Amino acid sequence: MNTHDAYLATMLRRWHVNPHLNQSGQTIGHHGAAAAILAHALWPGDAEVLWACIAHDLGESATGDVPSPAKQNNPELALMLTSIEAAALDGMGIRYQPSDRLDLVDRLEAYLWMMHHASAQRLTPEWRKSLAWIEGMALEQGVAVAYVVQVILRDARKSAGVSDAAPVKRGWWQQCSEWAMGKRK
């Protein structure tokens, strides 16, 4: 592994084109470490996902942190960026396994960062959609994961000083909570 290049990649700033978060100071290294902490809370002992959390964005050292909406709205751009980032990771000798678990903690960490640095953004359609995706993917990972994610989100809302998340339909959450408390079979 080219340790020096990987180390330098951790210093790349995230959110540089997001007007609400561009001064928040998060780096790729901070994001990877925070995602790994979340992954450990959800799946203790899963070393593969912990490494993926640390490594998954290091290839952005060759492209910058291009916002997800730009990639979602332009599939050709997304393919080009993926290719360039993969080449950068290869150059560093870094490999990791993409997974739904990685996708979940990657987006959860971004949502938590937004909650702490620009919490009013939680009410925008983009962040509401992101929250719905996080909650849906958490439920796909199982009731226990969905429950822990809801606890993490609740704590983030409390820490950010907001009384409630964006008004996203929460019917499944009540069911998970009842199941976790043994009220539902």
What does the secondary structure layout of this molecule look like, with pairings?
Layout: H1 3-9, H2 28-42, H3 47-55, H4 68-73, H5 75-92, H6 100-117, H7 125-140, H8 143-160, H9 171-180
Please provide a written account of the structure.
By secondary structure, the chain is mainly alpha-helical. It has a single domain (3-180), classed as Hypothetical protein af1432 (Orthogonal Bundle), CATH 1.10.3210. Helices cover 63% and strands 0% of the residues. The chain has helices spanning 3-9, 28-42, 47-55, 68-73, 75-92, 100-117, 125-140, 143-160, 171-180. Helix 6 (100-117) packs antiparallel against helix 7 and helix 6 runs parallel beside helix 8. It is globular and about 45 Å long. 29% of the residues are buried. The mean pLDDT is 89.
- Spell out the CATH superfamily: Hypothetical protein af1432
Number of strands: 0
Helix content: 55-70%
**CATH architectural name:** Orthogonal Bundle
Separate helix tally:
9
Report Rg: 17 Å
> What structural class do you assign from the helix and strand content?
mainly alpha
End-to-end gap: 49 Å
Instruction: Tell me which oligomeric state these chains represent.
Output: single chain
CATH fold topology: Hypothetical protein af1432
Task: Please provide the ordered H/E string of secondary-structure elements.
Answer: HHHHHHHHH
Could you say which overall geometry the principal axes of the C-alpha atoms support?
globular
**Name of the CATH first level:** Mainly Alpha
Regions with pLDDT < 50 over 5+ consecutive residues?
none
User: How many individual domains?
Assistant: 1
Largest sheet data: none
Q: Strand content of the residues, in percent?
A: under 5%
